[in-house]
Amino acid sequence: MQPRNDASDDSGSAFDRFRGALRVLYHGSSPAALRFQMAVILVDLAIIAFFIASPVLRGQPSFLWVDYSVAALLAGDIVMRGLASSDALRWLRQSTVFVDIFILVTLLMPYTLANLGFLRILRLWSLSRSGMLWKPLRRAGYATWRDAAHAAVNILTFLFVVTGFVYTFFFREGSGIEGYVDALYFTVATVTTTGFGDIVLPGPWGKLTSIATMIIGISLFVRLAQAMFRPRKVFFPCPVCGLQRHDVDAVHCKACGTALKIPDPGD
After folding, report:
1. For 48, how many CA atoms within 13 A lie in the half-sphere containing its CB?
2. Which residues form a coiled coil (predicted)?
3. 47 located within any domain
4. CATH number, residue 190
5. Does 87 share its domain with 166?
6. Alpha-carbon span 166 to 189, nearest angstrom
7. pLDDT one digit per residue (tens) for the chain, 267 residues
8. Is residue 13 domain-resident?
9. Rounded (10°) CA dihedral 39, 45, 46, 47
C-alpha cells in the first residue's frame, strides 16, 4: 500500500508543478513568459483572421481541416487557461470563458451550427478582456490609451458580427448583397448612418436589423470618440483614497486632496 501512496504523491506533485509552470507562462512577467504570451496573442490574431474570412472560405476543400485544427488550438488554450487559474470554478463563471466554449462548439460542428458561425468573431472581444493582450504593451503607455483601445475593439467586433449576420441571413439571389464585401459595406454605411441606399435589406426583418445596427453602432462610435478625445489622464494611484486617474499636471488628488508626486512622462 505504501508504494502506491508514494506514486500518487509523485503524480500529484508533478501535476502541481505543471499547473505552476502554466501559471507562470500565462500570468508571469519574465522574458520567457512575455515571449509565450506574445506567441499566444499572434496565434489568437491568426485565428480571428480565419473567423473573419470563414464565410468566404467555407466552400474550400481544406476548410474543414483548418476548422478542426483551430478547434484543437482553442480547446488546448481553454484547458491550459483553466489549469493556470488559481480558482477554476470562479474562472469558469467568467463571460469570456462562456464565449470561448461556445466558439469551440461551433468549430466542432461547423455545418450543424453554420448559421451561428458569424458569432466566432466574439473571440476578438474575449481576447481584448484578457490581461495577456495588454501586458506586453504596458511599457508603451497602455495605461493612457487602454479605454480607447477597448472601445476600438468593441466597435470592430460589432462591425464584423453584424457583417457576418447580414451575410448569413440576407445573402441570397436578388437581395442586392453579392458577397461578404457588400455585407461589410452595408454594415459600415448603416453604423455611420451614411445611408447611401444602394444596398437595402429586404422585408421587415431587414428593417429591424438596420435599426438595431444604427442604434448600437452609433452608441459604440460615441464611446470611442469619448475615449479618444476626452482630456488626457495619467495612471497614478492615490496613496490614500486609491483614485487611479489624474490630470497630467495634477498636484493634489481631486477626490481627497492628498499631495501627489506624479513623475514626468520623460522620467
Report:
1. 20
2. none
3. yes
4. 1.10.287.70
5. no
6. 13
7. 444 444 444 545 888 888 889 989 888 888 888 888 889 889 999 999 999 888 878 778 888 999 999 999 999 999 999 998 888 888 888 888 999 999 999 999 988 888 888 889 999 888 888 767 666 555 555 555 667 777 888 899 999 999 999 988 887 766 666 788 888 999 999 988 887 878 888 889 888 999 999 999 888 888 887 777 765 666 678 887 877 777 766 778 887 888 887 766 544
8. yes
9. 110
Instruction: Give yes or no: residues 81 and 168 share one domain.
Output: no
Amino acid found at 193: T
Question: What is the C-alpha to C-alpha distance for residues 199 and 190, in angstroms, rounded to an integer?
Answer: 10
Retrieve residue 133's grid coordinates: 493582450
Domain containing residue 84: 1-128
Residue whose C-alpha cell reads 466542432 in the numeric block: 108
Report yes or no on 133 lying in a domain.
Answer: no
**Cell numbers for 126:** 474575449
Percent of the chain with pLDDT over 90: 22
CA terminus-to-terminus distance, the chain:
64
Question: If DSSP codes are grouped into helix, strand and coil, which group holds residue 34?
Answer: helix
Q: How far apart are CA 138 and CA 65, in angstroms?
A: 37
Asked if 234 contacts 248 with a C-beta cutoff of 8 angstroms, the reply is yes
Domain boundary, last residue among 128, 152, 179:
128
The structural domain count of the chain equals 3
175 and 213 co-located in one domain: yes
- Residue 73 class from Cβ within 10 Å (0-12 exposed, 13-18 middle, 19+ buried)? middle
- Residues 193, 213 contacting (CB under 8 angstroms): no
Residues 19 and 72 in one domain: yes
Say yes or no: 21 and 120 in one domain. Answer: yes
Torsion of CA 103, 105, 109, 115, to 10 degrees: -50
Phi-psi label, residue 50: left if phi above 0, alpha if psi -120 to 50, beta otherwise = alpha
